[in-house]
Amino acid sequence: xxxxxxxxxxxxxxxxxxxxxxxxxxxxxxxxxxxxxxxxxxxxxxxxxxxxxxxxxxxxxxxxxxxxxxxxxxxxxxxxxxxxxxxxxxxxxxxxxxxxxxxxxxxxxxxxxxxxxxxxxxxxxxxxxxxxxxxxxxxxxxxxxxxxxxxxxxxxxxxxxxxxxxxxxxxxxxxxxxxxxxxxxxxxxxxxxxxxxxxxxxxxxxxxxxxxxxxxxxxxxxxxxxxxxxxxxxxxxxxxxxxxxxxxxxxxxxxxxxxxxxxxxxxxxxxxxxxxxxxxxxxxxxxxxxxxxxxxxxxxxxxxxxxxxxxxxxxxxxxxxxxxxxxxxxxxxxxxxxxxxxxxxxxxxxxxxxxxxx
Length: 358
Description:
4 helices
């Protein structure tokens, strides 16, 4: 067993406890606890110093000890997924954390959101980390190691997933200066109003944000996405307050999903992607299906290719109804009537596979 390199406990919900001596597996490189029944880890976990991938790591507190302390020595990690950070924020406790300045220990006392912010500040991820997933973060601000003065510590980070940030109100500008960051995914962060740096400062032209793909889901307070010169792929799901897309000159593809929106968002006029992929409800698709006579036409007609879909809820058929548009050479196809009801049906399917040529 001492030479074991991979343990995958994904979906092992009946397994609720790791062996006390797991830290003795010095050669272990991969460990997944995702969707398992394991909600705590034993002290001494930090002995797994060869770990490269750690998924589903549970954050929890026992007296004056926090499981996050065990991550400190794991300086070879390339992929890290942390779950249950709310378990750290919901109690008052004293925690010893290794400071970034030299290995000394100090006592930190915080409560609720201030507490989790402080604990997270002390994590200081390993410099070789390439993928980081954070779930259930209850602080109002993200960690200091994401600020512009600390980006060297995350110089290899390529992929960042953040989910369930109910109180976080802003993303630090330093996040956009990470030299290797390619993909950012943010889910269920209702307090964040802006994605991208507030201003594109002169020195940022020499080292612009490297982010190429962003996915935002359930960010109900999000108002703007801006100043990301290398962004190519943008997916927006259920962000009803989003009003501004600007400073995105490299944008090639936009995905938009919202079954509650009644009209297309006006910000589509302000960008010029090659492709737009749209998932909406039947009534909006029926309006779009009117083509040049639609009030939505001016919002999407400048885009080279548009594909829109809606579900047939009555018959439980996903994405049954469609509209496909190509700007040049002009083509417009749809299988939904402009006068369709909520089910998408019409008396005679005279518009099935309609092709309009000019």
